[in-house]
Amino acid sequence: MLPRLTRMLVLCVMTAATAAPAFAVQPSEILPDPVLEQRARTISAELRCLVCQNQSIDDSDAPLAADLRRLVRERIMAKDSDTQVLDYIVARYGEFVLLRPPFSLSTLLLWISPILIFVAGLTLAARAAARPRSEPAAALSEGEREKLAKILAADDPKTS
Known about the structure:
Elements: H1 2-19, H2 34-44, H3 63-77, H4 82-93, H5 108-130, H6 142-155
Helix pairs in contact: 2-3, 3-4
């Protein structure tokens, strides 16, 4: 039973792995030269879909992503280098279009914010662990016990 389950799991993983490179690129967009197409795919993987924002234009089905993929391929066909293609796209859409923006003064907060959040979380956890535990509530006085008994007796359907 276990070897069969293992084989099924391996088959599922392999099927998913081979299906992943399909991306959203349409057959009409693919360049005839495989070397140029690979360059286009590499560049497209670095550009953010401006509609989806968490996907590259290579993975997105959005019409704007398709337009950007065509633009990348046009620039490659115009003999631009990879850097020139990226610079052209960034000049038109801004650094936001890059999935991995460059480290600069304007993106400093973006790059260090995960570290700051992690340190803040550790600080809060350390303070919570170091905080003295609160004392248990004091026992009820005799008068409080009598009031509680009256309230409970009034709410009890058996005594009504």
